[in-house]
Design goal:
This protein has 334 residues and is α/β, with parallel strands linked by helices. The chain has two domains: 114 residues, NAD(P)-binding Rossmann-like Domain (Rossmann fold); 200 residues, 3-Layer(aba) Sandwich (Rossmann fold). α5 crosses α7. The chain is globular, with a radius of gyration of 21 Å.
């Protein structure tokens, strides 16, 4: 079999070396796109990260593609309907960074609560004054955790370690975990109304698209903080801008944006608009968020520790080996 691995750094290649004994494997540092698919159109198996193009327009360029091993938990970047119609298996990495992403939640929250970005920028300029840098304690405040899967669970544990009260919402409550950690499940409306910090840990799908919209922001406590390390589509960007501008929301910490691949360069912004690949209003809203002083944005890096990336690679290797052996693991259905 031919295996094509995209979005791969040099040190990551070592994980896939066991496959080279019996199979042809090629590596590309760049992302999967139409040109890359044409170069490796005879690949049987493809692996890449979330920024690669898994649209049907790209996937149909492969002559005999049978299996996709995405190096992510989410599969919203893959045309799953097309894969299902063409009998292409898709496997994900269901668990790799529970503590990793949860730690990043608090990196964002502490950056906000202690004005870390402004303080660091100021001292780099040789200004050691403290005006405007007074923060606030997390102890005694209430965190609302939306989604209590593995990442949400670890977030709740860390919050309790800070002395925070924790409320949670999930369509499938884990009551035993709630008792162990010490948090309460409540309805979504109550969580929004009582939480000083709302953090999102749900997958991106039709049910969660714009879960946090203008109505949700209206229910939040005045001066609340929103943290999103899940997916950008969960939050309605225009409603977020309005909540921040009105003061309903004190601040936001975001590791994801709805149009995040397209806002990386101004030229890409214009290209995307004229090609009608993305919504211009959402792209512009994302750019405004990047420049707001009460918003801390990181480039989808909550997962990005050496340990977590290695776990992703290990699971991806097992997924590929399992498929080759006729015993596929971590398959995701459309």
């Amino acid at each position: 079999m031919k295996i094509a691995v995209f979005d791969v750094e040099s040190w990551e290649r070592e994980t896939f070396e066991p496959l080279q004994d019996d199979h042809e494997i090629v590596f590309e540092e760049g992302q999967l796109d139409a040109d890359a698919a044409d170069r490796h159109s005879n690949a049987d198996i493809v692996s890449a990260f979330i920024y690669s193009d898994f649209s049907r327009e790209v996937l149909r360029r492969f002559d005999g593609l049978r299996f996709i091993a995405t190096r992510s938990t989410g599969v919203d970047h893959i045309d799953m309907d097309w894969c299902g119609d063409n009998d292409i298996g898709v496997a994900n990495v269901p668990s790799y960074g529970e503590n990793t992403v949860a730690e990043h939640v608090f990196a964002l929250l502490l950056a906000i609560s202690r004005n870390i970005v402004d303080a660091a920028d100021r001292t780099r300029r040789g200004d050691f004054t403290q005006g405007g840098l007074r923060g606030f304690d997390l102890k005694g405040r209430t965190m609302g955790v939306v989604g209590t899967g593995d990442i949400g669970e670890h977030t709740a544990r860390i919050a309790r370690g800070f002395g925070m009260d924790v409320l949670a919402f999930d369509v499938q409550p884990r009551d035993e975990i709630a008792r162990e950690i010490g948090f309460d499940y409540v309805g979504m409306e109550e969580l929004l109304g009582r939480s000083d910090v709302v953090t999102l840990h749900v997958p991106a799908n039709d049910r969660t698209r714009h879960l946090i919209d203008a109505e949700a922001f209206a229910r939040m406590k005045d001066g609340a903080i929103l943290i999103n390390t899940a997916r950008g589509s969960i939050v309605e960007t225009e409603a977020l801008l309005e909540a921040l501008a009105s003061g309903r929301l004190r601040a936001a910490g975001l590791d994801v944006l709805p149009e995040e691949p397209a806002v990386r360069e101004e030229a890409e912004l214009l290209r995307s608009y004229f090609n009608r690949d993305h919504r211009l209003d959402t792209l512009l809203a994302d750019h405004i968020l990047l420049r707001m002083r009460n918003v801390v944005i990181t480039p989808h890096t909550a997962f990005n520790t050496r340990e977590a990336v290695q776990r992703i690679l290990n699971t991806t290797l097992r997924n590929i080996e399992g498929y080759i052996a006729g015993e596929p693991t971590n398959l995701v259905s459309s």
